[in-house]
Amino acid sequence: MSVTPEQTAEALQGMFKFSQSLAEGFFNFLGNHNAAAQQAAPAAGNPIPLPEAEALARLQQELAEAHARLWTTMAQAKPGETVPPLITPQPGDRRFNAPEWSSSPFYDYIRQAYLLNASYLDKLADALPVTDGRSKSRMQFLTRQYIDAMAPSNFAATNPEFIQTALATKGESITQGIKNLIADMEKGRISMTDDSAFEIGRNLATTPGSVIYENELIQLIQYAPMTAKVYKTPLLIVPPCINKFYIMDLQPANSLVRFIVEQGFTVFLVSWKNAKAEQAHLGWDDYLEKGPITALQVVREVTKVAKPNVLGFCVGGTLLSAALAVLRGKGEDPAESLTLMTTLLDFADAGEIGCLVDEASVAAREAAIGRGGVFSGRELAQVFSSLRSNDLIWNYVVGNYLKGQQPEAFDLLYWNSDSTNLAGPFIAWYLRNMYLENNLRVPGKLEMLGVKVDMGKVDLPAYLLATREDHIVPWTSAYLARQILGGDTTFVLGASGHIAGAINPASKNKRSYWTSGATAAVPEEWLASAVEHKGSWWVHWIEWLKSRSGTQVSARNKPGNATYKVIEAAPGRYVKESA
Questions:
Q1: Residues 548 and 191: beta-carbon distance below 8 Å
Q2: Which of 19, 145, 204, 474 is least surrounded, with the fewest CB atoms within 10 Å of its CB?
Q3: C-alpha angle with apex 187: 181 to 192, nearest 5 degrees?
Q4: Domain boundaries, the chain
Q5: Are 314 and 321 in contact (CB under 8 A)?
Q6: What is the maximum span of the chain, computed from C-alpha positions, in angstroms?
Q7: What is the pTM of this model?
Q8: Closest CA to 87 of 72, 60, 109
Q9: For the segment 141-178, what is each residue's pLDDT rounded down to a tens digit?
């Protein structure tokens, strides 16, 4: 099929009009969803600030010309001829990997046209004249949501895999997809794994132990020793309260808890309560006092060790660090060492979560649940899934509903779907003082439990683990804890993301981590001098911990003591409660 110059000119004109309408729809989307951009806009201007006319016209012209080239190339291709694509997906984008996308000229055109539009919208978002970093990040995040949602792979009419699967199964995949959709609507969430394959206490969170203490907010688990001798100094673990603790104790092969116990440590772990109406009044101070501070006191009394080692993960690390600052402010010397896994103390760049937090959204939370109420764990889980929408939302929309497939059994995704409620006053205070105003890093700015906290007084040795591809806690932000804490710090950078990089079993010897003795103030300067090591950071950390854990003594097989008696076997009731 030959294409005349007149047809090409007509296509170019049509594509230029299309690029204008695409931009208009995109700006309307941002205006409806981006409160930060609306606040930044001039009072008498557009709902969002538009790019300069020249820049906008250039982007529209580039898109129109790219579409014209694509149309011409596809139209002039001979039957059966393989035409090199004008644009390809980004590395790691698996949505168009199936051969049906490239073997059919129709779907190949749809795929490439979408990728051109996506690139255009990305450039358009970058061109918006917004100088505020948080507002800019928010618009870029919303742009990704818009782009991902409009992918042709998400719709039956434009997904060749849907059609091929339906033909191969004689329509059974469509029937099963409808059943899957109905079942997920009843659950109130998208199924990411085979829920029937897992059960807490049966094949998840199975490291032997006992609950020796509980209050309205936590249970404290003491794990049974697995070695004849243990290090004298115990370890207290404070997981994030926004998730269930068993991310630290999945199955035996990838359990950090089991690994530590097998290395000869007496391990205690906080299991947070899934907040209900009875906990709806609890605030930040309550989480500090009834959480890490109380747990630390119980560990001291049970082991008769005045200064245990402590470890916090994500927001559990923020809570733990704040608790240590409170105790130091009261003149106590609470712990021997501190380990923080993917933890923020400086929230200046709080990753993709931070770009979603603005004054309007925080004020709305404060008005709704700041004085009492419960923040839904399902809502929080949806926010986290939206940060990786192609992997954690649209991938399952396509697989579950369009193809009628059942998701595979995957322990990490089972945990990811097992959401946890939070007390409203706690989350409202946390969002304002950490994500919005970044107050924790300022000495004396925040008062907790009657103490004006100074993180610089937390002067014990600290091991700081960040992960290189973390979209929740950027590693460069986690690094800034070195400038806030008052003691000597060892910083280690793991490969992969927030969870996969942290829960990287030593036995599997996968991925890698970076170390350096440099104390550079700038994270990138530290990385420039760092050395890469193959395998898990667990091996490096456990040796660091052993050197701060005293001599080895005979293990005590009886948990608790006369005051703190066994309540029930681990993993306990709290972790099994549904949101």
A1: no
A2: 145
A3: 70
A4: 5-168, 209-376+419-576
A5: no
A6: 92
A7: 0.89
A8: 109
A9: 888 988 999 999 999 999 999 999 999 999 999 999 99
Q: Is 314 a catalytic residue?
A: yes
Residue of 74, 261, 314, 355 with catalytic role: 314
Q: What is the DSSP letter of 480?
A: G
Q: Mind giving me the DSSP string for 268-299?
A: EEEEE----GGGTT--HHHHHIIIIIHHHHHH
Cα distance between residue 161 and residue 164, in whole Å: 5
The residue among 80, 66, 58 whose CA lies nearest residue 114 is 66
Class of the 209-376+419-576 domain?
Answer: alpha beta
Structure tokens at 338: 């501190």
Alpha-carbon span 426 to 286, nearest angstrom: 8
- In this structure, what token pair is assigned to residue 388? 């990786």
Angle ∠(561,562,563) on CA atoms, nearest 5: 90
Q: Is 238 exposed, middle or buried (0-12, 13-18, 19+ CB in 10 A)?
A: buried
Q: What is the DSSP letter of 88?
A: -
Range list of β-strands (E), 364-469:
374-375, 422-423, 447-448, 451-452, 462-467
> Which two tokens mark 491?
């910083």
Identify the residue whose tokens are 């600290």: 462
